[in-house]
Amino acid sequence: MSRRSAYLLLTDMLEAVSAIEEYIAGYTFDAFVRNRMVCDAVVRNVQVLGEAANPVPEDFRDQHQDIEWTRVIRTRHILVHDYFGIDYTIVWRIITVHLQPLRDTLQRIIQTEFPDGDPMGSL
């Protein structure tokens, strides 16, 4: 397994956030829970967020404590291991309350830490 750079992991996280925002645009909670395909797509991308956050180096996380790394990773674990017991009320709260601040923070970190893109030159 190749080691992905912090830059790529953060951009993976940002892409997952963007996908979730695209999927739920114009949705109310009731419409969201009635659309199984959107629920599945959102849950998958919340899982991607946690999957990408997990290998971010500890020292990098320590420098950027404005992201709740443990919470992002733990949410992924809960969704993966309790798939049939997903509480969509909690998922909706996560994506409607916490996603935009996460997006803003990820964008700021990427622009500040990696103004020229990936320092490792990865694709």
Automatic annotation (TrEMBL):
Homology family = Belongs to the HepT RNase toxin family.
Q: Which cellular component appears as one GO term in the record?
A: toxin-antitoxin complex
The reply on keyword Nuclease is yes
- At the top level, the lineage of the source is Bacteria
Record protein name field: DUF86 domain-containing protein
Say which species the protein is native to: Arsenicibacter rosenii
Q: Which UniProt keywords apply?
A: Hydrolase, Nuclease, Nucleotide-binding, Phosphoprotein, Toxin-antitoxin system
Kindly indicate whether the keyword Magnesium belongs to this entry. Answer: no
Q: Give the GO molecular function terms.
A: hydrolase activity; nucleotide binding; RNA nuclease activity
